[in-house]
Amino acid sequence: MKRLPFERPTKHYDENIRQIDEQICALIQQRKDVSNANPGFPPKKYISEWADKYNLYEDLLHDVFSTLRNDEEFRPQVEPNKFQKYVSLMKSVAKDEYFYSVAFMRQYDNATVVNFTIDWDDTKDSQDDHIRRHHFWELFIEEYDCRMTSGGGSGGHFSYNFVVSPPLPDDLSGLQFVFKAYKEPYTYKETPILSEIIIDMD
After folding, report:
1. Roughly how many angstroms between the first and final C-alpha of the chain, as a whole number?
2. Average pLDDT over residues 134-158
3. Average pLDDT, whole number, for the chain?
4. C-alpha distances in angstroms, 159 versus 51, 92, 101, 184?
């Protein structure tokens, strides 16, 4: 999903708290380093204790730690710019009852968009089955930054788009596309992998 640009909500700022705010930033980075960027979420008991001790609202702390749970969600997004061409890939893997494929990619000046599809026989699927089959997919390519930007489908077919930067070469020899499915988005550091699909580009 494309993120809207941030707009400062007010022109007011109390310069007396500037040093405190900088210390908060330093502590956030320290927290990230100590937890190896995988902090999880504090138990409810801790939240209640800290709210009482520091005279804060529990819901405020819920929001703070939810935001800090995974900073990957806030990683700057590369917006594909100046379409160049389509590159046919026609790579696929059949696993269990699913057929996974990467038929093509779109090349841009500053990025590549990879299209990943999943197909299956849905003749006996119920609505609940369709919901059960939907997962949040991540793409991993060594030395490249990958982000899913859109996904969905119906009738025995899902399709997902991933922005990859810097742009991939037209010749993908030696590269592997590793697709991993999770229950929630941005949780690959802390939740089990539901499915893993490896597609060799040789």
Report:
1. 31
2. 87
3. 89
4. 44, 14, 10, 17
